Amino acid sequence: MKLEAGTYVQLEVEKEIEPNGYYLTNGSENVLLHYSEIEGEIQIGDCIEVFLFHDTHDRLASTMKRPLISLGELALLEVADVHPRMGCFLEMGLGRQLLLPIRELPEEEELRPVVGDHVFVVLEQDKQGRMLAKLAGEREFEPYVFAAPTTWKNQWFDARVYKTLKMGTFVIVDGGVLGFGAIGMIHSSERTKKLRIGEVAKVRVIFVREDGRVNLSLRLSKEKGRDEDATILLQFLKERPNGAMPYSDKTPPDIILHKFNMSKAAFKRALGKLMKEDLIRQEENWTYLKEQQMKDN
């Protein structure tokens, strides 16, 4: 049996070498168990379970301590440090840190985890057999996630980001007492800000799919969102010269999103509410405050 970093093995205590510790063996290979890595008492001839890792000198070593993750396992680990060229260093519970390589992270820096975030990772090995973290994805989550119930629709939950793409952000929605959680996606049109990997956001379930995954939004429901958006537009107009803005229901969606951080549909709902309340008027491609609103302002 080959000794591999990241695994638990049963080894025999072969001999003690002061001032280092004990050498353990599987019959063909030896590995050091440093005094500082011992828990409880051991004697020559004992068969003990240890976890294998590489020490600071890149030598295979062992510990009786229990890490937060082992080879092939999924775990949620805290970001202890960030290096701009190497990646993130994760706390794995052994007094040493696990590297999440820069190649695993988004090119855009603001989408990368920061110190204190927790990220879902799987423990793997590099070509030299050293431990490395890899961001977990749908395949790794499959044994743990559950199908979201239809009663989740329009409810708010905490969700942790595990993948971020231009078209959408993928998250694990906290399952609470139901279990691990459900897989969800926040479409780019439903984001109100960029979300980084490891970030926890408040999300609203807008659709429960047949496969149990959920479509999510950072926005309020249409009715609540319409009122909030209408307030934003009204205030914007009041602060504009002559109470006018060069935006209307004919303005392209990308301009609306960039200027007001709302979808074209939400923008039109807010304008419709203000027009119904007789607070604004539209002329060509401009929107104006009604004269009474100008006087009140």
TrEMBL record:
Source species, domain of life: Bacteria
Residues that span the membrane, as ranges: none
Pfam families from the UniProt entry: CvfB_1st (PF21191), CvfB_2nd (PF21543), S1_2 (PF13509), WHD_CvfB (PF17783)
Database matches in InterPro entries: CvfB_fam (IPR014464), CvfB_S1_2nd (IPR048588), CvfB_S1_3rd (IPR048587), CvfB_S1_st (IPR039566), CvfB_WH (IPR040764), NA-bd_OB-fold (IPR012340), S1_domain (IPR003029), WH-like_DNA-bd_sf (IPR036388)
Single annotated GO MF: nucleic acid binding
Span of the signal peptide: none
Domain spans labelled S1 motif: 154-219
Family affiliation: Belongs to the CvfB family.
Protein name: RNA-binding protein
Organism: Chengkuizengella marina
Lineage, broadest ranks: Bacteria, Bacillati, Bacillota, Bacilli, Bacillales
